[in-house]
Design goal:
Helix content: under 10%
Organism: Amblyomma cajennense (Cayenne tick)
Protein name: Putative cell adhesion molecule ixodes scapularis cell adhesion molecule
GO biological process, one term: cell-cell adhesion
Oligomer: single chain
Shape: rod-shaped
Largest sheet: 6 strands, mixed
InterPro entries: CD80_C2-set, Cell_adhesion_signaling, Ig-like_dom, Ig-like_dom_sf, Ig-like_fold, Ig_I-set, Ig_sub
CATH topology of the largest domain: Immunoglobulin-like
Membrane topology: Single-pass type I membrane protein
Radius of gyration: 36 Å
Number of helices: 2
Length: 274
């Protein structure tokens, strides 16, 4: 008896072969995911900074967003690989400046197929330091001249403002009375400075009631900021102060008050000392 063998058309095996190969590649390469995501950074203008972003099993394209808008690769400014073989999507930012680079940054990787999910890193802040103006003191709405004598009455509550403008980030403001920190009694608020985009106005308010012992003492406001130069390497500072001229009533006492009785018509000497 003869055996008949059927021949399959070669083309019928191709779909199976393609699917099998695709499945094997997917299993070997794995799902693209972040190895390293960017972190917040604070730098001085004119310097360089690297925002790290590394992807395992990368197949999509690397994209960087600044304040929600995609950035292109710009020579001598923004340097990153769109399709790095090693998955390193980090961006190297040169000649950092406040106007162009300060803001929110995010690393993204596009999907390369329907099986891949796009990747979005956490949004981070790149802060480009801007040196704030030196602090100034105000009492109510009146500016105070540095080093001046500030007149007040003992027992009166006075309100002082210390203001530092056009800094990025906002300055940290502290108060000292005769060298002792009294910042816990103050309240600092920060708001965007209307005169210079991207900068902040810091204001600290101190309410204080002075007594006669404060007469001649120094009230000082200190502004700390990373853009101020400090030989020790820490945050530098600028300060402003006034000298307190506290007015208070005199203490009155009598001297020479006799213990014995004085006859009518007799003489008595009393000293009044203030």
């Amino acid at each position: 008896m003869s055996v008949v063998r059927r021949q399959r058309a070669p083309g019928l095996w191709i779909p199976f072969a393609v699917v099998a190969a695709s499945t094997v590649i997917g299993l070997v390469s794995g799902v693209q995911e972040f190895d390293t995501t960017p972190s917040d950074a604070e730098v001085n203008p004119g310097s360089e900074v690297m925002l790290e972003c590394k992807v395992r099993n990368r197949r999509g394209e690397c994209v960087w967003l600044k304040n929600g808008y995609a950035l292109g690769k710009i020579p001598d400014k923004y340097d990153f690989e769109r399709e790095p073989p090693n998955g390193d999507c980090s961006v190297h930012i040169r000649k950092v400046n406040l106007e162009e680079d300060d803001g929110s940054w995010q690393c993204q990787v596009t999907r390369a197929s329907l099986q891949d999910a796009p990747l979005n890193s956490n949004v981070v802040k790149l802060i480009v330091r801007e040196q704030p103006h030196p602090p100034r003191l105000e009492e109510g709405t009146n500016p105070l001249t540095p080093g001046m004598a500030f007149k007040t009455k003992a027992g009166d509550l006075r309100r002082f403002q210390c203001v530092s403008r056009k800094g990025n980030p906002p300055a940290s403001l502290r108060w000292q009375l005769n060298g002792q920190d009294v910042s816990a009694l103050a309240n600092q608020t920060n708001q965007t400075d209307v005169e210079k985009r991207g900068t902040w106005q810091a204001q600290s308010v101190l309410d204080y009631t002075f007594v006669k012992e404060h007469n001649g003492r120094e009230l000082r406001c200190i502004a700390y900021h990373g853009a101020y130069e400090d030989p020790s390497g820490g945050p530098g500072h600028r300060d402003v102060s006034v000298i307190l001229d506290v007015m208070y009533p005199p203490e009155i006492k009598y001297e020479g008050h006799p213990r014995e009785e004085v006859e009518e018509g007799g003489s008595l000497t009393l000293n009044c000392v203030a």
